[in-house]
Amino acid sequence: MQIVEVIDVWSDGEFEKTGNWLSSWKHVEEAIAKIHHWKPGKFVIKPEKKWNGVSPIKQAAMAHLAESGWIMEGKWPTELKEGFTGSRVIKPGDIDAVREFEVGLVALEWETGNISSSHRSLNKLCMWLEDGVLRAWILIVPSKALYPYLTDRVGNVQELRPYIPHWRKSCEGTKWILRIVVVEHDETDMSVANITKWTDGRALR
């Protein structure tokens, strides 16, 4: 799988120069490159609309991050929840992967829910970033080209893009990083198998 776009909604220009961030981002790039399907070193998808699951795609990436020392299904630090503005409004859920540093968490979420889930994620993370729980947040979403072949209405970059100026404005003056990473298949081939859909409650993903 390949990264086709990196959107820095916000960066303070300081943390992005640190070894903590540079090593974290390197891990993410390596993890996405590890996602193969059907061909060694390539992510090949059957170009049938809405027929491929999303959750299985991220598993190789999560495995690489775990090997690199990231914590899977990370919890929010208990000591930061007390008096934490966001926690009085929305209870934080687990994070797909996190790295813990003295200055805060670097967190990664691979969007497998629908577009409403993407908006909830971004709104919640903005609150958590403002409250100092996070130092950087990476959200991974499919490209416009990949999106049609995945579960219907999964979070995607084209539906988030119009809101980026709003999120960017809300970040002004803050000291953290908010990065959206857009991923895409390497090839299409009608002869390959569909990627299995998982069930989450009654929803397919």
Task: Describe the model.
The strands form 3 sheets. The chain has a 6-stranded mixed sheet with strand order 1-8-7-6-5-4, with helices on both faces. It starts with a strand and ends with a strand. 27% of the residues lie in helices and 27% in strands. The protein is built from 6 helices and 11 strands. Mean pLDDT is 83; it is low at 78-90 and 199-205.
List the helices and strands and how they pair.
Layout: E1 2-10, H1 19-33, E2 38-39, E3 42-45, H2 59-67, E4 71-74, H3 78-81, E5 95-101, E6 104-110, H4 115-130, E7 134-142, H5 157-160, H6 164-171, E8 177-184, E9 187-188, E10 199-200, E11 203-204
Parallel strand pairs: 3-9, 6-7, 7-8
Antiparallel strand pairs: 1-8, 2-3, 4-5, 5-6, 10-11
Which characteristics define this entry?
single chain, 205 residues, alpha/beta, 6-stranded mixed beta sheet, 3-stranded mixed beta sheet, 6 helices, 11 strands, 27% helix, globular, disordered C terminus
